[in-house]
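Example complex used in Figure S2.
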Amino acid sequence: MIAQHLPVLQIVIPLMSAPFCIFLRHHLWTWILAVAMSWLSLAMSIGLLARVVEEGTIIYHLGGWAAPWGIEYRIDNLNAFILVIVSAIAAVVMPYARKSVDREIPRDRAYLFYAMMLLCMTGLLGITITGDAFNLFVFLEISSLSSYVLISMGRDRRGLTAAYRYLVLGTLGATFYIIGVGLMYMMTGTLNIADLASLIPSVAGTRTIQAALAFLTVGLCLKLALFPLHMWLPNAYTYAPSAVTVFLAATATKVSVYALIRVVFTIFGGVDILDTLQVRDLLMILALAGMFAGSAVAIYQVNIKRMLAYSSVAQLGYMILGISMANVSGVTAGIIHLFNHALMKGALFMAMGCIMYVIGSVRLDDMAGLGKRMPVTMAAFVAGGLSLIGVPLTAGFISKWYLIQAALEKGWWPIAMLIVLSSLLAVIYIWRVVEVAYFRAPPEGHEGISEAPLSMIVPMLVLVGATYYFGIDATTTLNIAHSAATVLLGGAQ
Amino acid sequence: MEFPGITVYWIVIALMMMGFYVVISHHNLIKKIVGLSVFQVSVFLFYISMGKVIGGTAPILSDNITVYSNPLPHVLILTAIVVGVATTALGLALVVRINDAYGTIEDDEIQALESDT
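Predicted assembly (610 residues):
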């Protein structure tokens, strides 16, 4: 009975628990509630993924109204996988958040923090699960508004301006997205994604639909911070509280990438409009530019959270590059990198959170000699960094391997070269941290410092462990990503 | 394509560009929020006008009503208006906190303060 309503419970339970946090008001109780809800979400999303793998696409009609009149939730391999990513990261971040929040956010406001985290998670899960283009917008705004609040909660006043700039750009992006949806509605009279996919081919030649595609692409690229629309991202990640950075870096942009995949391959999958308008070429050029620009700027950063933020811009380039290749291996690489990057960037930002907790700074100069003082944290950072570079046996290697394979399949060996070259840039910025942390003497007054609390170390090690686990045995994730890519591209032929 | 339809869309585009221009060009954070609201309102108008059928009335189930406007875009935009109000409120709340923290709401002055620290 309940299993049948699992798709809607996945959204409703965290959504309802957010206002409940406001009633509880107590920092400890709300934290317990948030942890419980995130674990419950993870359990539900794993249940959904298992069911999708076994029985195929799940279609759930909200309130029993049949699509395309009612809103439907449609879960296939791809979004079941993304649901697991989002809820798994949330399930790891929530236990981690307790100590970190205690240090970075006034205790009397901590309950608001957990309420916002739950809302943000709800929004991200909602974007992923819904099969309705307008419903997607609503969830996009739920997640965005809560993330603006979360970013502004940091101790540094620059968090406020970062949140403000993100609010302006994020709202522009979301509004572009609804303009696109409106234009599609004008031509097709439907908002259901599956229905749109079947109706778009008959009207694809019109100027209206071309304009819709342009608005949707630009709007979503703003949300996913594709170079050069990434201007909001570095400051937002740098000045947000540590736990927020971990959560947003690992999930928010990924979910927007998912939304772009839906638009490009599901809604516009049946037409060759992407080739005639050269959207793919444009995405590919921007992705390549982002890979290099992001990494190059990262090399010069003195704030390591900011460095990792720029590295995220570069890594998003890899995902979009895979998607823009539009062959099965390319899209598989994009999806798998989405998962792998969530793990490794989560781990790296968690290491930064631990350092922030202990020494109160994440500037490179302050990290001198930390390799001896905080051996576990720094080891986790190095391990995550290796994965970011794409060393074999790490998850990062799997995604780059597939990406290069996809480029070679198309015969684009210069692009394969560029992928390798840009990975080498990652070596430089990770090495800078290693050099300072391991080969420089600790400054005076650092004698007393030691590791971060266990409740922060364990979640970090879980993510690092996962990076290596899915680097050594990637069969499960690859199978899911591969079948999702096949289904997506099946619509194109 | 008759003339009135086109006028509405021209108004939408004009409002949209005005709002967008204010967001980009003004340094005052409150004016930016105003521009953002104008930008969003233009989209509301766009949705509302696209649901209108000329000569149509409200969609009431009755024998003597045959032509009616599409109510769905209007309903959608109710949701979008709520989102817009929330965004404006949050944006203004952030401006208040920025004013507390920096003592100014001019973007260029804030940037100057930020590059000092």
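Helices of chain B lie at 3-25, 29-51, 72-102, 107-116. The mean pLDDT of chain B is 86.
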